[in-house]
Amino acid sequence: MLFCSPSTNRKRLVSGRRSGERLSMSRKIGMSLGDDESDDEEAAPDSNDDDGQDDPYELHFANPDDGELSRRLASIQGGKWSNEKQAVGRQTNLVISVPEAAKERSLLRPKLSGPKKLHLKERLAKNISHSDFESEAAQTLAPYVFAYQDVLASGRTPQNAPSLRNLSALHAVNHVLKGRDRVLKNNERLSHADSAEVNAQDQGFVRPKILILTETRQMAANYADAIVEVFKPEQQEHRKRFDDAFRDPLDDRQTMPEDYRELFGGNNDNSFLTALKFTRKTLKFYSGFYNSDIILASPLGLRRIIENEDKKKQDHDFLSSIEILIADQADGMYMQNWDNLQVVFNHLNLELRQAHDCDFSRVRPWYLDGHAKHLRQTILFSAYITPEMNRLWSAHMLNVAGKVKLTPMYAGAITEASGLGIKQTFSRFDSSSPGDDPEARFKYFTTAILPRLLRTGAQGTLIFIPSYFDFLRIRNFFAGSTLTEETSFGTIHDYSEVSDQRRARSRFSNGKHSILLYTQRAHHFFRLKIRDVKRVIMYGMPDNPIFYQELVEGYLGTSISEGKIEAAEANVRAIFSKWDGLRLERVVGSERVKSMLAGAGDTFDFV
Description:
Elements: H1 56-62, H2 66-77, E1 81-88, E2 92-99, H3 122-125, H4 136-145, E3 150-153, H5 161-191, E4 210-213, H6 217-231, E5 235-237, H7 239-246, H8 258-264, E6 273-278, E7 282-285, E8 294-297, H9 299-306, E9 324-327, H10 330-346, H11 365-368, H12 372-375, E10 377-381, H13 387-395, E11 403-408, H14 414-417, E12 423-428, H15 437-456, E13 461-465, H16 468-480, E14 489-492, H17 498-509, E15 515-519, H18 520-526, E16 535-538, H19 545-561, E17 571-576, H20 581-588, H21 590-598, E18 603-606
Helix pairs in contact: 4-5, 5-6, 6-7, 9-10, 20-21
């Protein structure tokens, strides 16, 4: 393995800093000593447990082969990937992609049932058990995670989430400690030799190497717990302050679904940014960003600093050297505001705006060459995959080590409601492109679905609308069209006040409003119990298949069980286009979706 030697004509990315700027880091940016660290703890490496040249850390970050790296980068820049699809068991599919120039013969990696082959630091190997690899998802993903490949994994559940979280925390801490030891050993070498004789390019531009994104403070606290469990520090500085700020009592309401309690239970504030620093014996909470190893943040919290209204307070340099990004509950981020996450990705691994006292002689060559985004590992866990996540996969997950996408096989949410005897009709409409889809959907709904509904009687009809912009258009149509001028309707949307929600539910239940317009994000955030529903019309497929079950089993099923309607009278009508494949698959199942998207006929009935 050839060590990458520094180029003689690299561009100096930052030439200085503002006069009088307070230095946040010492010249040795990787393991600087802050004012609060006057002892020698920081200066001592963990141990001499180097794993050698077959260690993925060595191959990917520390000593990548120049020629191999150049070939892989050329493949990525040319959009040339080798792809392989593999079934893992009966319930999971893997799509594995590597740059076309890669030498791997087989892209599939065998499952791991334990930590033996993970090239862990010795102190970490002592702290973990096989229980961390209990879930099927963790066993499947571990080989790719520890090989520094990008991972987009759907099928995350409250049940497998702890295993995925522990796996990610182990990988993150292992990465931090390997880098820390390398820097400290090189510091020692430099102190006893002529600096010209020592190649010590072992760092990025700034110290933070890990970015962990969660949607809520409570989930960030869960990651902090996982990190502590792996690292087992002798001391935890400012831990109580952290717990006070990031934890609240968990939501134990059994009337709410488990996925809702996991996402919104405890402290569900979604604007935060904090950092952790490792020394040999201590884990320090609330360390300064530029003197930290791991950043814990929400996408919104980061965006508020990146795009701060006060330009003097804008900052994203602390994201310039992120080598592992972990985003958990990406589906929650999608429901909140996907643009927040997009802004974060757009500001990763950029050139420094200020020097931050960077010692460029210690910076790894591929940082200086502007290739950091191609060596960064990105790990996303989500309950399901959306088109936006697939675009992120294509545009930002461009790792020279390759990437893997995990998708489960779906039985379909309709199978859960099949025992109720409710007729469920799916109607496909023509749509020429994703850009034209909103217009085609609106036209189909207002000309083919709504007139028939109003002729046959609309009392007790709930219209589920995934997009807020579509909701606004439908609401305005109901308010201004002659077709609906004699139809009373109510609305519950993303921004409805609690009092407005109660009023709309009451008027719908007592029949004053025959139709209720209900948005996907309203259901995501409130999970309302709406009574006296006799018919459900889905303007589009829900992203979350659990929502389909809750609308059909929960709303219609309750009306049937309370004797408000017979099962034969209740019905579901859902409209979709060929661009709804991901959502439709989760509702009708993987075996049915292909024929429904492209097969003969455009109407499909299930009971």
